[in-house]
Target: CASP-like protein
Amino acid sequence: MSYLGVGVSPGTVPVYHGSSLKVFDRRVRVAELVLRCLICGLALIGAVLIATDTQVKEIFTVRKKARFTDMKALVFLVASDGIAAAYSLVQAGRCTLSMIRGSVLFNKPLAWAVFSGDQVMAYLSLAAVAAATQSALFAKFGQNELQWMKICSLYGKFCNQVGEGIAASFILSITMIVLSGISAFSLFRLYGENKSKGNAR
Model:
């Protein structure tokens, strides 16, 4: 025993670090849950904005209706947003269940599954947004070399709503990249813990 703290038992140190680690893990899980809910909401907003967007225009007594199905890139984006919403909803349920049970960390197979799923969704959302953005630029500015006209000069309302949907999907893809970074951290720290345990032995 020491009055200056020199003879303090080292057994108290791991307890302090362990409690701090649990607090950090909970914060990471809360951040993950918030991001997954945000992704689910953005995916639904993007999909609904694009899928419900229509505009009828009369050109030389011929009525033409613009729909998202007229552009394959928009169909791909709506499908991607739908998959992202469903995936994020399932993962948000997993996060909520693990927080209720109090099991913050998970095993390696589950961590690999979450990491792989997040990576696939990040690449899928980026590809869909990139394709839709390129098609939207062609519709907005046309292509003189190929004699493609500016469709948005005819279907202004349709293009504006599609632009809003693409913007929501773009934010979704950025959020998905951040989330995949969190899942990578959660996965590789499991290996770090095993390494430190091995060194302790």
Q: What stands out?
A: The longest helix spans residues 156-200. Residues 68 and 74 are 6 Å apart (CA to CA). Strands lie at 54-59, 62-67.
